[in-house]
Design goal:
OB fold (Dihydrolipoamide Acetyltransferase, E2P); 7 helices; alpha+beta; four-stranded antiparallel sheet; elongated; 4 domains; six-stranded antiparallel barrel; Elongation Factor Tu (Ef-tu), domain 3
Length: about 500
């Protein structure tokens, strides 16, 4: 017996018997009982597979030598590459179609196709005469509304409006008397306080302090309402007779000329209008002097100022729209107009692209879905440069299939990683053949796929030893349709079985 065989489990059969005896390797005796049992179980599984092959393949092949023979092949060393092939199109990482936002006759084109430009460079211009005039008018109108004189007028308007409030309030107090106005104001404040207290109490109904505050607010409202009712009684019984008793000059008779409901409503409306005028005047003054203005602020003066601002902004945009500037550093790809042409607003005039970092838009067959992932390396050969291979990396794989012309494909993005930017000048749209490398093994031990057997997660092969196939467990690396990489379990020069073949 060879010394190395002492480390393996052997299978022994006896002629005419169905009993199979297993001889445990000597090293198991040196392990713990639990570990030895676990390893033994695994080896029994492997031995069972070997025995099945021995009974079903090898023995029939030996007993019927006239009809079948065992095929074998020697392990070879070589390279194995797993890849998915597709077609890519060269695309710019940043490409912009530039247009005038203000149409007109083209007066300047400062670049040519293929020229490199920097960010902010003036590329083209249309006649801006009309836009200049409109901008000047808008700027003048806005300047008039925001001039020192306009600010002074706004300040005077605030003061005048405040005087109107005082006058309107005095008139209403005369019509109704000061007590009614006072208690009406107190009722309004008490109602607001009650609403606030009710909201707080509803949010925390178990809070005794909030419930107490709510009750206090209700009591306060009841109190001021009573006072207001009393003020109305006093108004009718005392104030009106004392202030609105008139004497007829011809007869000398006295009579009451109490304010009518219409007169009272008119006086209230005058006060409200005067107060609103103060707010509007103050809004305009604050806007002119940099003060804070509420978003919902209104007023004719404020509206006029806001419209002037919008007109000036629009005129500025129209003037800016007569020129085209490069939004980034790049290369001019196309120019679609000439000096003297009429350019329409929004129509593409110049296209620029950043060619320093082009990428490939790659399409693969849907069967390659599992063979491409972010981070995979690629070999790229452009159709117009068939003798040069570029390197790339997959940076994006679309989460779903892309359908084009009724065919489902995998779409991915490949970044070229070894560009000499100064020498790389291929036009956008250039097509390329792309191999996405899913795995690579160099100078690896390779066996035919048909020699490989799998049971669960375990791979095995039959190795010929002294003319007898012996089952061995192997560690498998990458594999394609023809070959598998063996990372451990076999040695160079080993001969493995690949099946049987019929003979005459």
């Amino acid at each position: 017996m060879h010394p190395e065989r002492d480390s393996r489990m052997s299978v022994q059969t006896h002629p005419g018997s169905n009993v199979v005896k297993f001889k445990l390797p000597a090293f198991l005796s040196r392990l713990s009982k639990k570990a030895a049992l676990g390893i033994t179980a695994a080896l029994l599984i492997v031995a069972a597979g070997g025995f099945a092959y021995y009974k079903l393949v090898y023995l029939p092949a030996q007993s019927i030598t006239t009809t079948a023979s065992l095929q074998t092949t020697q392990i070879r060393q070589g390279d194995l590459v797993i890849y998915a092939s597709g077609t890519g199109t060269l695309t710019s990482a940043n490409e912009n179609d530039l247009a005038f936002s203000t149409g007109g006759k083209v007066t300047e084109i400062n670049v040519s196709v293929g020229e490199k430009v920097g960010a902010g460079d003036l590329l083209a211009k249309v006649d801006d005469t009309s836009a200049e005039i409109a901008y000047a008018q808008a700027r003048r109108a806005y300047a008039e509304l925001t001039s020192p004189a306009a600010i002074a007028d706004a300040q005077i308007a605030v003061a005048d409006a405040q005087e109107e409030v005082v006058s309107a309030k005095n008139h209403l107090e005369y019509v109704l008397g000061p007590n009614i106005l006072y208690w009406e104001n107190e009722v309004a404040k008490a109602q607001a306080a009650l609403t606030e207290a009710q909201t707080a109490a509803d949010q925390d109904s178990s809070n005794k302090d909030l419930q107490t505050a709510l009750q206090k607010a209700k009591d306060t409202l009841d109190y001021v309402n009573d006072k207001l009712s009393g003020a109305w009684v006093s108004y009718e019984e005392i104030y009106v007779p004392n202030h609105f008793t008139m004497t007829d000059r011809s007869s000398g008779q006295k009579y009451l000329a109490a304010p009518t409901e219409t007169e009272i409503l008119s006086a209230r409306a005058d006060l409200a209008a005067a107060q609103a005028a103060v707010e509007e005047a103050q809004y305009l003054y604050d806007a002119l002097t940099g003060g804070e203005v509420p978003e919902d602020a209104t007023g004719s003066g404020l509206s006029e100022l806001e419209q002037a601002q919008l007109d000036l902004q629009s005129a500025q945009e129209d003037l800016d729209g007569t020129e085209i500037y490069a939004p980034f550093a790049g290369t001019v790809m196309s120019i679609d107009v000439s000096v003297g042409d009429n350019a329409s607003s929004g129509a593409t005039v110049i296209t620029i692209a950043d060619l320093d970092q082009p990428y490939l838009e790659l399409y693969l067959d849907e069967s390659d879905w599992s063979n491409v992932a972010v981070g995979y390396n690629c070999d790229v050969i452009f159709d117009i440069l068939p003798d040069k291979t570029y390197s790339g990396t997959v940076t994006q794989v679309d989460p779903g299939l892309y359908t084009e012309s009724g065919t489902s494909v995998v779409r991915a993005i490949v970044k070229l990683t070894d560009l000499n930017e100064s020498a790389f000048n291929l036009p956008l749209g250039t097509t390329a053949s792309v191999d996405v490398i899913g795995g690579k093994a160099e100078n690896a031990l390779l066996i035919p796929i048909e020699a490989l057997h799998k049971a669960g997660d375990v791979y095995t092969v039959f190795v010929m030893e002294n003319g007898t196939p012996t089952l061995k467990v192997v560690e498998v690396g990458i594999q394609d349709l023809l070959y598998a990489e063996i990372k451990s379990g076999l040695n160079p020069g080993d001969v493995v079985t690949t099946g049987t073949t019929e003979t005459k």
